[in-house]
Specification:
Elements (H helix, E strand, L loop, with lengths): L22 H11 L4 H12 L3 E4 L4 H13 L4 E5 L6 H14 L4 E3 L3 H11 L8 H20 L4 E3 L16 E4 L5 E4 L7 H11 L58
Parallel strand pairs: 1-2, 1-4, 2-3, 4-6
Antiparallel strand pairs: 5-6
Helix pairs in contact: 2-3, 3-7, 5-6
């Protein structure tokens, strides 16, 4: 693997010494990393942020590749996931397979009972079908707030987002400033990968993956909010399928200065 010789710009650090970037610095880094391999991007991130780097995983195909890359580089890399309490059984199965494959100590974040219980009591278990506002309230309690806790104290987080996943991600940069989470750095090492690239890596590395992918589920979220897609449909058509495309976001990937809001 080539050496990038990438040094973090001389930018302010937070009180724990983790680098902070401006939008222009993030854009410059994205340009410099545009032709880099995903492994090189992760090496740079690990050297730059150390234990302040966390890897996000929802155990979709891209996340399995990202975890494999990160944990081969550093078996002690921090990996977190959000257990919404409504995930498909197949997601829990691949979560267990990941623990067995890499021996990773997953940092699992779940909804706070003091927020979830009144939400369900007052609006019902399946409130998300009633209105966009109710669905977003559910997403906030089950996903957004746990993510805030997962990123507390982090200097950077790495995701499995790709430009080809959705129209809203078509301009996705490698490096972003995540203003929704205190201005920490957000990294997308697989930004330039195609779906074919992802599945090639899964096959070549014999990686575990969610069995729902074999049943027509290219994008997987909570069980009640995900369905299989039909031939010719957009890969994310099965997410919140009862809503119009412009409302289909849960709040996990906002505030990064790019306009990307898809979940």
């Amino acid at each position: 693997m080539a050496t990038l010789n990438m040094t973090t710009p001389d930018v302010p650090t937070d009180r724990e010494g983790s680098p902070r970037l401006t939008l222009s610095e993030a854009a410059s880094l994205s340009e410099r990393l545009a032709a880099a391999e995903a492994e090189e991007i992760l090496v740079w991130a690990m050297e730059t942020f150390g234990r302040h780097l966390v890897v996000a995983s929802s155990f979709g195909a891209e996340d399995m590749v990202l975890m494999d890359l990160a944990l081969r580089l550093d078996p002690l890399a921090r990996v977190f996931t959000i257990d919404t309490g409504r995930l498909p059984e197949e997601t829990y199965a691949v979560m267990d397979a990941a623990r067995e494959r890499w021996g990773v100590a997953l940092e699992v974040h779940a909804p706070r009972p003091e927020a979830l219980e009144p939400l369900v009591r007052e609006r019902g278990m399946n409130l998300f079908y009633r209105s966009v506002a109710d669905r977003k309230a559910c997403c906030h309690v089950r996903k957004v707030e746990p993510l805030q806790r997962a990123l507390a104290g982090a200097g950077a987080w790495a995701t499995g987002l790709r430009r080809g996943q959705a129209v809203t991600r078509s301009a996705l940069p490698v490096v972003q400033v995540d203003y929704a989470h205190g201005g920490i750095v957000k990294l997308n090492p697989l930004a330039a990968w195609s779906e074919e690239d992802v599945w090639r890596a899964i096959r070549e590395r014999d990686l575990p993956y969610n069995a729902l992918h074999d049943r027509g589920f290219p994008s997987i979220g909570c069980a009640p909010c995900t369905r299989a897609v039909q031939p010719g449909e957009d890969v994310r058509a099965g997410r919140w399928w009862w809503e119009t495309p412009e409302t289909k976001e849960c709040g996990l990937h906002v505030g990064d200065g790019t306009g990307s809001t898809a979940a």
